[in-house]
Structures are given as structure tokens and as C-alpha cells.
Amino acid sequence: MKNFKNFILDLDGVLYLLNTPIPGGREFVAFLRERGQNIAFLSNNTFLTRAEYTEKLNKMGISARAEEIVTSAFVAARYLSQLQPLARVYVIGETGLKQEMVHSGLRVVTRGSADFVVVGLDRKFTFQKMKKALTLLMQGAQFIGTNPDPTYPTHDGLLPGAGAIIASIEVCSGKKAHVVGKPFPFILNFLLELRGFVPEETVIIGDRLDTDIALGNNCGVFSVLVLTGIAREEDVEKATVRPNLVVKNLFEFQEILS
Ligand SMILES: [Mg+2]
What we know:
Blueprint: E1 6-9, E2 16-17, E3 20-21, H1 25-34, E4 38-43, H2 50-59, E5 69-71, H3 72-83, E6 88-92, H4 95-103, E7 107-108, E8 116-119, H5 127-138, E9 142-145, E10 151-154, E11 157-160, H6 162-173, E12 178-179, H7 185-195, E13 202-206, H8 209-219, E14 222-226, H9 233-238, E15 245-247, H10 250-257
Parallel strand pairs: 1-4, 1-13, 4-5, 6-7, 6-8, 8-9, 9-12, 13-14, 14-15
Antiparallel strand pairs: 2-3, 10-11
Helix pairs in contact: 1-10, 3-4, 5-6
Bound molecules: magnesium ion.
């Protein structure tokens, strides 16, 4: 345990639930800072930009810098700008996703042709948007998905997630999206390279077996499941995806590390 230098933390279900901080998160990040550990925040969520996530965390008393935050929107934008600088992108998603595209120098278009169709969670998704995506894909645009999450948890219950929107477009177009987010290794490999983290010295902490823990296991990164979000103790027994460690909350993990 003592050899770990890098800690990658998921956000929803680990540090907060929507806008409510989860007890132990602030203390855990402060504990890591005190020890001079490297920290990264990794989320599939595309509602906000990196700057906005930084602000959200800081308001909760959790110290974070924008360079430490990696979202599937940020990774998709960086990836596309490397593939084709100044590309035209048609985005199905919310402001966080569109802003990251613009920050990476891509041109977000609503009319005419596009080089890429980028799809994330869009709470204003319509038949018209699906049709536009279909048309562009038939014209040869490349299909990128932010994350495959089937649902998104809120206090009002589950919302359909980005994965559901991506799937609808896959069905009508007959094309498979290249999905960059968790649990696909692309996002974690991107983060490891960006920060110069060695997998053997790195821990990933998350609340979902099917994304966070599967991702850690896929990339040779030590995986820690924290039971403050989606996964429950009984899920761990049934699951085929096994975390390296299960903790009730971040207080418990902090104790183990100290
Ligand atoms: Mg989570």
C-alpha cells in the first residue's frame, strides 16, 4: 500500500452525490496532499467543463486544479483535435461537452457537414438530433461516444445515460461508436500518459464495479471500490468484476493508508 504514489478519484458517488459532499472525501484529498501524493480526478460525466468541476470541488473544500481533472468530454476533445485539428464536430450533449470541444480548437457545428459526430448525455435529446446524427454518419462522419453508462443516478431516481443515446444512434445508423470513457482503457491510458503515472504505482478509486473497477482491472491499476455511491456490499459478492480492495468510505481507506 505504501508504494502507491498516484491516486485517481472518481467524482460522483465518491466525493459527492450531485451537489452534496460525501463525508470523508475532503479529508481524504487533504490527507493525500499532506503526503505529497499525485492526485487526478476522473469522471465519465460531461455536464461540466474541467474549470467548472474545479470550482465545484473547491466550493466543497476539496482542493483541486483544472489540470488534475479528466472527463470523457475532455479526452474526446483532445483525441479529436489530435486526429484532425480544427475538425467540424456535431455534438449531441450539454455545454460541458461543447465547451471542451471549443477549448481544443474544434469547430462545433449545428448545420451542414461534419467530420465527427460526438455523443454524450443530452437531457434535451430529440428525434431531430438523432436524425441529424444519422445523416452525418451516412455521409461518412466518424462516430465518437463519450461514455457507455446506461443510466445516470439522481435524487429523483435514474435518468437514461449517454449509453442509451449512443445505442439509439448505433441502431439506426448500423455504425458502432468509438467510446472513449470508462470502462474502456482509452481514458485511463490517456490520463496515465498525460500525468506520467506508472500503472503499478497508481490506485483508482470508484463507486461502480462496471466502470471504475473494470477500468482499473483492464489497465493493471490497483482498484478500490468505495461503498458510498452505486455499488452495495451484496453487489460485490455477485459480481464477476473484482476490486482489489473494498472500503465503506474514504475514512476507512485513509486509515488503511496511514
Ligand atoms: Mg461514480
